[in-house]
Design goal:
272 residues; 6-stranded mixed β-sheet; 25% helix; alpha/beta
Length: 272
């Protein structure tokens, strides 16, 4: 995703590429995979070879975005960081990836604890030139999983906090933000930004093909920027200001590009 948090902003987002597979024993809560994970977390599998190819095709497209990308946020899962890695060296601005748990994977409610992502200090050793080890995540989702409504609230609050931070950092300067995340999370991002929350959560509205790009444009700069408030370091879940009913987060956003895959040789694939 990319945003222009101020001025005449826009936002584009994407779902990570083809990945390896894993299984879950729902009775024991144990994850299993035959694909070695660089983080030693069975559910944190790397991209498949085809996904790596897609990541380079995506990198070429991201390098051509104008205005150029100023900020990069990603889920801390290895496959997302691996997806965005080829683009970092091609971007016109020198940026590092901020790993945000609030944009992390969606796990359903369970009687056991789902795996947590690898710690930032370890991820920095895997991506030494592109990872921002000093960034502190806004939200830490519950390890016992979430309901679908709670996923939407988690994403909305994360967006509210992140955009508020960037509004404060950028002042009146236009800036562009990119987010790499997972399919369910990406769909929730679109609904929170636009305020378009369907009665039936299974409605196909915001598309999430692998390596597809979605773009959102901010409607207007709010008279009172969220960034003007005092932001705490607290990472417990809270509610974002009312965003439903097409209000949207931080002034509201319009979707201008929805799951575009024109930059990929294989085109539109594996929509979630």
């Amino acid at each position: 995703l990319f945003f222009f948090p101020l001025g005449n902003p826009a936002n584009v987002g994407f779902h990570h590429k083809f990945r390896g597979s894993f299984t879950l024993d729902v009775f024991t809560g144990e994850y299993h995979t035959n694909v070695p994970s660089p983080t030693n977390i069975p559910s944190d599998v790397p991209l498949a070879a085809y996904g790596v190819q897609q990541s380079y095709e995506l990198a070429t497209a991201l390098a051509q975005i104008d205005p150029p990308i100023d900020y990069v946020y990603s889920s801390p899962m290895y496959r997302c960081l691996q997806t965005i890695e080829p683009a970092i060296g091609k971007l016109r601005n020198k940026v590092k990836v901020r790993a945000e748990n609030g944009f992390g994977e969606f796990y359903g409610l369970a009687s056991f604890e789902h795996p947590s992502p690898a710690p930032p200090s370890f991820l920095q050793t895997l991506f030494p030139t592109s990872f921002d080890e000093n960034y502190e995540s806004v939200v830490n989702p519950p390890r016992s999983g979430e309901s679908i409504p709670r996923l939407h609230e988690r994403v909305a609050y994360t967006l509210y906090r992140v955009i508020a931070t960037l509004d404060a950092e950028c002042g009146d300067k236009e800036a562009t933000m990119l987010i790499c995340t997972h399919a369910a999370t990406l769909i929730a991002v679109g609904r929170a930004l636009t305020g378009s929350m369907p009665d039936d959560v299974n409605v196909e509205d915001f598309l999430a093909p692998t390596a597809g790009i979605t773009k959102y444009v901010r409607k207007e700069t709010p008279e009172h920027r969220p960034g003007d408030q005092q932001l705490s370091d607290e990472s417990t879940l809270k509610e974002a200001p009312d965003w439903k009913g097409r209000q949207g987060i931080s002034g509201g956003w319009v979707c201008e590009l929805n799951g575009d895959c024109s930059h990929l040789r294989g085109g539109f694939e594996k929509a979630w």
